[in-house]
Structure formats: structure tokens, C-alpha cells
Design goal:
single chain, about 280 residues, alpha/beta, 8-stranded mixed sheet, 13 helices, about 50% helix, binds NADPH dihydro-nicotinamide-adenine-dinucleotide phosphate, binds magnesium ion
């Protein structure tokens, strides 16, 4: 792949030295970023409303959660790790007016920035660091000495310093141990939304349902069951293997040529917790 990938040696935590990072929200991503950054020696404040299990968890983890506006005021770098659908309102009410010139405003999904729901004030750069995995994995991989690969993007007018802060942040949460790919807000938003909404929550589920209904209607699953019960499947499978499994191997070779397998192989190399052994 032609994309630029950054690793630990390309990122310097010194870019975060003397700076305070506010993690707004202590949910899936928030609890992982806050703890990983702290373990990496970064000064972290947590912005989390009281009265919820996430507030108690932040306290249990040794943080002293502040209201979102206060956490923003204390920080140089502010990462909004709230659900995407509430970010814009909370930004306008509690974050925007507490940002200072020179601060960096961060997110881990480009939705609100790309679609114009969040606009940074002048002299505040926008930065995206998005681990490509759920928060519990971002934390557990980090603790195990590994890291979830991620994406990094800055807006066109952001400074080189902001990009270096992004790399340091990605290192602080463990992403550069896996590899961080440079992208744009638009690309991250489109690929993440399409993968999640169309493939993961859309087509995958619908395909299983439609496939099941179509096949059952056509008597297919019944036929497969009969073939298993009357020994047809077993006989064919035994004969296939006696002959050195030519049909099975040919099919596997064919499937491996599909672009999704070729790209997938490259990406899995970045994910240390996946064993990408090829079975011949
Ligand atoms: P969660 O839903 O896990 O986090 C919710 C956090 O936001 C909680 O701390 C919650 O507090 C707080 N919150 C929710 N509603 C409000 C509100 N109205 N006012 C104040 N606080 C509120 O979010 P995620 O970690 O899943 O997502 C955060 C960002 O990370 C999003 O931009 C998402 O797209 C991105 N992302 C998520 C990934 C994932 O796997 N989850 C992967 C990569 C990126 P309370 O407990 O009080 O409700
Ligand atoms: Mg998403």
C-alpha cells in the first residue's frame, strides 16, 4: 500500500511535554485514552458529568473528573470523546468558549468536523487520532505491550507542530506500536461510516437474514441437513481428502486472490493480537 504509516520511532512524546490533555467523556474510547496517556507520562484531566457509572469508573481509576467546561479550561489539547450525536451541542455550550488560541481540538471520528457541525475557533487547530478498534482493546493491547493501529489527520491549515502532537498522542495511547496511517477528515469519516453503517450494521446483518430466508424457502437448508444425515456430505468430504483435497485447495486459492484478502493481509500485519498465519 502507498499510504504513509508511522510507528513508535516516528513519534516523540516530547511534543506533549508541559501540556495538559483533556479527555472529555470516560466511555469506550475515553477510559482507554485517559489511562494510556497517563501511563505514558502525559498530564491528563478527565471531563465527565457526575451521576453515572463512567464517572465512578474514572474516580476508581484515580482521576478527579471535572465538568466539561472546567476540564477544557485546564487543557492545551482537548479530545472530544462523547457520542457523535451529542458532540456539536456540548461543543457549543461547554467547549468552544473555553478554548484558548494555540489549543488543539481533537476527535477520534471526523463526523462532526467533516459535516460542519463543529468548527474550531481561529488559532485552534483540528486534529484527529482514531484508533481502529473499540476502547477496551485500545486499553488491553496497551497494557499487554501492544497497540491498536490507528488513523491520523489534520485540517489543511493546521501547523506541523499540531501534526507532531498528533503523532505523540497516537504514541501515548499505543497506536504507533501497531502503525498509524495518515488520512484526511473526509476519508476517515467516509470509510468509518460506510464500514460501520453499510457493511457492519447493514449488509452483513441483512445478508444473513435474506440468505437464511431465501435458502429456507427454497428448501436448501433442509437439503444440506439431509445430506449430512444420510452421509452424502461425509462420503464426499472423505473422498475429497483422500484425493488430496483438490477442490478445497482450488477454492481457497481463488478466494485468496480477492482484493479484500490482499488488503486485509496488509492491515492484519499491523494488529499484533491477530495471528495471521496462512494455512496451506
Ligand atoms: P461512548 O458512548 O462510549 O462514551 C460516552 C461518554 O460520553 C460517556 O462518558 C458519557 O457519560 C458521555 N456522554 C454521553 N452523552 C452525554 C451528554 N449528553 N452530556 C455529557 N456527557 C455525555 O462513546 P465512544 O467512546 O464509543 O465514542 C467516542 C468517540 O470515539 C466518537 O466520536 C466515536 O465515533 C469515536 N470512536 C469510537 C470507537 C468505538 O469503538 N467505540 C472507535 C473509534 C472511534 P455518561 O456515562 O454520563 O453517559
Ligand atoms: Mg465509528
Amino acid at each position: 500500500m502507498a499510504a504513509t504509516i508511522y510507528y513508535d520511532q516516528d513519534a516523540d512524546l516530547a511534543a506533549l511535554q508541559g501540556k495538559t490533555v483533556a479527555i472529555l467523556g470516560y466511555g469506550s474510547q475515553g477510559h482507554a485514552h485517559a489511562q494510556n496517556l497517563r501511563d505514558s507520562g502525559v498530564q491528563v484531566v478527565v471531563g465527565q458529568r457526575p451521576g453515572s457509572a463512567n464517572y465512578d469508573l474514572a474516580v476508581e481509576h484515580g482521576f478527579e473528573p471535572l465538568p466539561i467546561d472546567e476540564a477544557t479550561q485546564q487543557a492545551d489539547i482537548v479530545n472530544i470523546l462523547l457520542p457523535d450525536e451529542v458532540q456539536a451541542d456540548i461543543y457549543r455550550e461547554h467547549i468552544r468558549d473555553n478554548l484558548q488560541p494555540g489549543n488543539v481540538l481533537m476527535c477520534s471520528h471526523g463526523f462532526n468536523v467533516h459535516f460542519g457541525q463543529i468548527e474550531a475557533p481561529q488559532d485552534v487547530d483540528l486534529l484527529l487520532v482514531a484508533p481502529k478498534g473499540p476502547g477496551h482493546l485500545v486499553r488491553s493491547e496497551f497494557v499487554a505491550g501492544g497497540g491498536v493501529p490507528g488513523l491520523i489527520a489534520v485540517e489543511d491549515d493546521a501547523s506541523e507542530t499540531t501534526f507532531q502532537i498528533g503523532l505523540a498522542y497516537a504514541k501515548g495511547i499505543g497506536c504507533t506500536r501497531g502503525g498509524v496511517i495518515r488520512t484526511s477528515f473526509a476519508e476517515e469519516t467516509e470509510t468509518d461510516l460506510f464500514g460501520e453503517q453499510a457493511v457492519l450494521c447493514g449488509v452483513a446483518a441483512e445478508l444473513v437474514k435474506a440468505g437464511f430466508e431465501t435458502l429456507v424457502d427454497a428448501g436448501y437448508l433442509k437439503r444440506v441437513l439431509e445430506e449430512i444425515q444420510d452421509g452424502t456430505f461425509a462420503r464426499n468430504w472423505i473422498l475429497e481428502n483422500k484425493a488430496g483435497a483438490p477442490g478445497f485447495k482450488a477454492r481457497r486459492r481463488r478466494e485468496r486472490q480477492h482484493p479484500v484478502e490482499i488488503v486485509g493481509k496488509e492491515l492484519r500485519k499491523l494488529m499484533s493480537w491477530i495471528d495471521d498465519k496462512v494455512v496451506e
